Amino acid sequence: MLQSRLFPETKKEAPRDAVSINHKLLVRAGFIDQLMAGSWTLLPMGQRVVSKVNNIIREELNKIGCQEILMPLLHPKNIWNETGRWDSAREVMYQFEDSRGREYALSFTHEEIFLDLTRKFVRSYQDLPIALYHFSTKFRNEPRARSGILRGREFLMKDLYSIHRDENDFWSFYELVKGAYSEIFRRIGFNFRIIEAGGGVFTQNKTHEFQVISDGGEDLIYYCNSCDWGQNQEIFDGKVGDVCPKCGKGEIVSSKSIEVGNIFPFGTYYSELMRIYFTDSDGSKKPPFFGSYGIGTTRIIGAWAEVSHDDKGIIWSRAIAPFDVHLLELGHGGSTRKKAQDVYKKLTKLGVDVLWDDRDLSAGEKFADSDLIGIPIRLVVSDGKNDLEYKERESEVTHRLTFEGLINMFDGK
After folding, report:
1. Is 184 helix (H, G, I), strand (E, B) or coil?
2. Does the predicted model carry a pTM greater than 0.90?
3. Angstrom distance (rounded) from CA 274 to CA 34
4. Phi, psi of 265 (to 5 degrees)
5. Which three-class secondary structure string do you get for 303-348?
6. Closest CA to 216 of 175, 260, 182
7. Taking the CA of residue 238 as centre, how many other CA atoms within 13 Å lie in the half-sphere pointing to its CB?
8. Domains in the chain, start-ordered, CATH in brackets?
């Protein structure tokens, strides 16, 4: 990709109303743009990051037998009336009438829609389990749309839903998802904790959240400094310094954090409300056990910017960076352009995704933009030098490489 063609250009100043780090950096670097409070456009580089996040999620969910679908965003009132959430979740949902007086809601979640879908096809225990996921937009009437892209009224999520023959099969799958989520967030590069929490408008059961440790987070979590125990502030009954109730050895510590994923056990509650039953092997009619599992994909962009940056800009991990390499062409000689072009073509042929800064700007402006955008590897081609300058974004150390040495570094990767 030629940077001269990349939309849009970076900005020298953050928006006046920007308070959170992710708001300032992601807007300045050209990843997102705000339409109104809580509503964001993913610009080309932001879309690239989300696509990489989605691919990681897709790979890990497919490994545990999940299948991808896409469900509607416009929902009729009668579906939500079956569980009573048309009224109980009214403050969260965007509800409206059409020109014929029919009532609808925009999707704030998809539990009812998934259950309506599966009850059309499930007849016997042999049809179970079913685990389906999709990537879609969510609409929530958030009273305090703030913190950049972390808290919005319209955002992207990955939803996974599953139904099971019995409780044992459900909990086995629940643990599989917990493991898949852990692998997803490890691959992305997060320092995270799995935290027990309440279910809010979703369920009265205890749930689990995947929380990224961050000073810029809105949640407060308590966890053991020795084992994997942890709880959200809303259910925590203790104090910092207490002995861990699980291992009996560690000490309870606290931290601000950003929730990037959650998993909900519903039991048979919603299945019974929506009258979903299957015939078991003994001929009896039973409701399936149901679970819901979410990851905020656009929230991940904001969370990453909050936890991985310096005073110059964002520092992307290689797993989700918009490009693999940022190639900076310094100088305007024909030999420099040819050398940059050779590097670009060869790396691209090797499958390396390169952003080539071919713009007619000063070296200082190009270095500043490179640091702001935060691509993991920077390569510099300059006048009068036959070798290349190689630098990793998270390091202050630069290295000199020959063209052949550079190609060898990426060949086979």
Report:
1. helix
2. yes
3. 39
4. -95, 125
5. HHHHHCECCCCECCCCCCCCCCEEEEEECCCHHHHHHHHHHHHHHH
6. 260
7. 18
8. 3-307 (3.30.930.10), 325-410 (3.40.50.800)
CB atoms within 10 A of CB 246: 13
With cut-offs at 50, 70 and 90, classify the pLDDT of residue 32. very high
Beta bridge partners of 139: 154
Cβ atoms 328, 381 nearer than 8 A: yes
The tens digit of pLDDT for each residue in 166-223 reads 999 999 999 999 999 999 999 999 999 999 998 655 455 689 999 999 998 999 999 9
Residues 6 or more apart whose CB falls under 8 angstroms from that of 321 comprise 49, 52, 374, 375, 376
Say which residues have a Cβ less than 8 Å from residue 303's Cβ, sequence separation at least 6.
22, 150, 190, 212, 214, 258, 260
Query: 54: which DSSP letter?
Result: H
**Is 287 in contact with 268 (CB distance < 8 Å)?**
yes
Distance of CA 173 to the CA centre of its chain: 21
Residue 77 phi, psi (nearest 5):
-60, -40
Contact criterion met (CB below 8 Å) for 10 and 373: yes
